[in-house]
Structure formats: structure tokens, C-alpha cells
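Collaborator request, handled under Task 6.
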Amino acid sequence: MTNTSLFALLIAGLFGLAVLFGGGVSGTQVSFAFKNFPDLTPGFVYQAWVMNPQDELVSLGRFRHIGNAKNFEFFGDLHKQSTFLISLETGDPDGVGDLNGSDPDLILFAGDIDPLKDIVHLRLISPDLHTPSGGVYALSTPSDNSDHAASKLKAGVEANDGNDAQGIWFVSTDPENEGALVGGLDLPRIPSDNFVYEGWVNSALGNTTISTGRFVRSGMADRNSGQSPFDGGKVYLGYPEPGEDFVNPGVAAGELELPLELNQGWKAAISIEPYSDSDNVPFVLTPWKATIGTASTCLFDTIKAQPNPRAYQQQKCLFEPQYDGVAVIH
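C-alpha cells returned to the collaborator:
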């Protein structure tokens, strides 16, 4: 079942609740449904709120699993309130508490209540994730190329110009500047200083997900720069952009062992992560993703980087998240 079909089924079920319990007769309970928003890991919770006409917020409750966002009680008539809000909260380790007081941490959805209707559409309002995100990447392994001195390579790593599928870099080229490498990502803004971008690659083989590093903007090296166990350099020899080489032989990456061939069924993604999130999977806010090395959903360009001509395979992708939600008063 597709996400869209599942979302439609959830809406139908919640609408059935509204009819079953009399719709606007009581109006003291509300249930929510969301499209493309997953369950949260421990340490984070969603929180539902209602705002009255005086702009005062009342918490309806918290939930980590999307399927539990239903039958929230309110002492009064919800039709007489003004707005529903859904926020993302930083919680305690078991995922049920809120360490940041009574105000929302990051509001994701908002929906204005119509006093004559039981169904409220929740629009995504932060951080502009409803807009398309662009991404270009190159399959390349700069850290073990022969134009770097062999003495700068890690023990056991040999110079190799023919293994570009073992590295991914979020770069493009500037045709007006002799093919100079520039940032390849066009992403939604980070919602606050408490968040950061993070690159990922994922393979169904061994259910392996690997971070390629965190960064605060495209056009700069990520935080794996100079300290990655995966690349071939004793010193940082990658591009000054987000990305990673997976060439260091014998190093473990999840259940797999390097080197990795990223054009063999791997996927790439960029997520927006809270600084405090330390697990090894992308967070719920994932504005860009692509399948590496396939032309099924993206357009390929082959370009040459100057002044050291070498063909890079680049993929231009647009990924538009379809985040949506509804609230049903019953």
C-alpha cells in the first residue's frame, strides 16, 4: 500500500469516528493523521496543541507513534478554538517527557479550525519542507587518486583512479570557472541553530545505513573532514564539500566491509537533524533522496572537471516531500 493510499484510509477512518460520535455535537475530542511522517525514536516526541482565540496554547498530548495520535480529550468545545498545532519536541530517553518547558520546540503543522466543520487540514509550515529540494552528486574518490602523493595515503591504501563508484560527493561544476567544483545541493533552510544537515548512504544489503557527515550549508566540508575512518587519506584529501570516500580496505561499515560500490543498489539522502540526535539513521526531516547510479527517476549528466580532466557521473534530482496532515474533531 502506498503512503498516499494509507493516508486516505486513515482520513476515512477518522472521518468515520466523527460520524460515529456525532461530529460537531460534542466536539471535545480530536484525532490526527499524517502522510509521510514516520514514528519517532526515543528522545523525541510529537506534541499536539490547540490555540484559543486569545492565542493561548493548550497541550492536547504527546505521541511518538503516528498511529497513537487519536482521541485526545479537550475540556471544552474544540470548534470554538482557533488553531491546531503539531510540534516536534526534544524529550527524555524514553521519549515521553519534555525537557524544554510548556512551549513548542519546533512547530511542524498548523491548521485553522472552522466552527462549522469537523475536518481541519494541517499545513506544513516549518521549515519550508513543502518546497522542492535539488541535489547533484558526483561518484568520485579524491582521497586515493594518483595525483595525491602516495605518502599521504593510509597504510594499506593504494592510489586508484578507477574506483570512483566507491565515493559520493555532493558537488557540481561551474562551467563559467573552468569546471571548478561548487556545492551541489539546494536545500530548505535549517529551522534553527539546534539543527544541522547530514548526508547518508543506505544499502538493503545488510540493512546498512552510513552517515557521510554533518554540515551547516552546502559549499563547505562536512564534519567528517579529516577524521573519517572510511577514506584513504592520512590528511583530508577530499573536496571542500559534503561527501565521503569508502575506500579504506577492511574497515567495517555497519555489517559490511570496505570498500563499498555505491552504484550497486545504494541510495543517498540528506536529512535535517537535531544536534542532540546521535542515532545512525536519518531523522524524520529528509528533504532530498535519490537512488545512486540509476536513471529511473533522475537525469544524468557527464561532465569533465578541469584542470585535471576526469569524467564524473552526476545525477540531477528533484525530490518534493509530500508531507500532509488532518485533524478530525469528534
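The cover message to the collaborator said: "Helices lie at 3-20. Confidence is low (pLDDT under 50) at residues 17-24, 294-313. Please let us know whether this matches your experimental observations."
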